[in-house]
Automatic annotation (TrEMBL):
The chain crosses the membrane at residues 33-54. This is Heavy metal RND efflux outer membrane protein, CzcC family. Belongs to the outer membrane factor (OMF) (TC 1.B.17) family. Keywords: Membrane, Transmembrane, Transmembrane helix. GO terms for molecular function: efflux transmembrane transporter activity. PANTHER family: BLR4935 PROTEIN (PTHR30203:SF24), OUTER MEMBRANE CATION EFFLUX PROTEIN (PTHR30203). It holds the Pfam family OEP. Signal peptide: none annotated.
Amino acid sequence: MHRRVRAAVRDGARARDRACVERRSYGLARSGCVMRSFGSIAAAICAVVCWLGASGVARALTLEEALARARERAPDLIASRAELAEARGEVTSAAVPLRTNPLIEAQGGPRYTTDGEWIVQLSVGIEQVFELSDARGARIDAARARVASAEAALADVARVLTAEVASRYLAALAARDRAALAESGLELLDTMREVAQRRVDAGDASIVDVRRIELARAAALSERDDARAELRREIGALRLLLGIPAADALDVEGDLASIAVAWRASTESGERADVVAARAREREARARVRVAEALAVPELVAGLAYQLEEHDHMGLLTLGFTLPVFDAGHGAREQAHARLDAARAELERRESTVAVQIATAREAYDAAVDALAASVESARSAGEVEVLVARAWDAGELPLGEVLLARREVVEARTLLVTRARDAASARMTLEAAAGGAR
């Protein structure tokens, strides 16, 4: 299917060149030059892209450059990277060998004996709590799983963000192409108005013809301004997504039809980032259950002490155990098991959702490419109609009403080509995002 679209694009380009030669041979050198950029849309919108690229002063971003900038500098990704750094800090905290710091105590003071003597009594001790359970290992596993989840979540944010950037970028390309179509139509109508005015002056036509052309020109002018306004809106949305200041010039470049058929099957391999994140959250939840269960295990309290009493020096070893009587972690275990159940349900939902999204996106993409191929053929036929109508108009063989009607049909066919190209390109980016990433 992609080869068929490319072949249609090449055939359309050849038809465009033949049309230009025919227009010149029938004395339409002036209007033929105007129609040349207009007729190129019938092939694959290529000449429009070149025309705008040559006339623009702003540096144009390609789709690849926009996606790369989104992955590097987008504000949403900066926040996700901060969350990843926080998760890595939890691993460092969990890896500490002992959960609590040692406790050092010192006691001292005089003691009054029954003999009326004052005796100095002093004691110094250190005490440490040791975990007898595998709570430390569980905390490390939970922290590492959280890091894996944060890394996958960062990748998923990039996946969703690049898909949104691609959508805005393609919308800007489509608006640019529609504006170029309308601009070419305005130039053509200006030429037609001059010809009609000369015919009116010669008494061969009515002033009504001039007014009808002016009416069609006003409609084309409105379409051009609407397309330019949409282009500015999409460029503004791109600025927000990419973090580009308003003072920096920004433009887009590229060919919608070429983007539409550039699907790469390599993006279909591997597990999607949101599924990886859900799986990591499920591992973290299982580790949190182990941490909660460890609360029911007693802890060992060991210590050393030195005591001075009168002239006696004593060394003491202390051992003790905590008794999880009042708080054995019942509530923590209930919460941990509930989070585990939720994480498992979320993982299952994600896996089934991804499968449906990929299948749906693939079907939509195939249908969009079919529609694009049909639209390319239609636009190529519109180019041939344009040549015949221009020939008949120049020879005075076709009434103005039929010329304007034919022109409207040609414009609609070429506008539909822009729409179909955008739909196919958007479907392709949706499929790539569903399969794992927007390039």
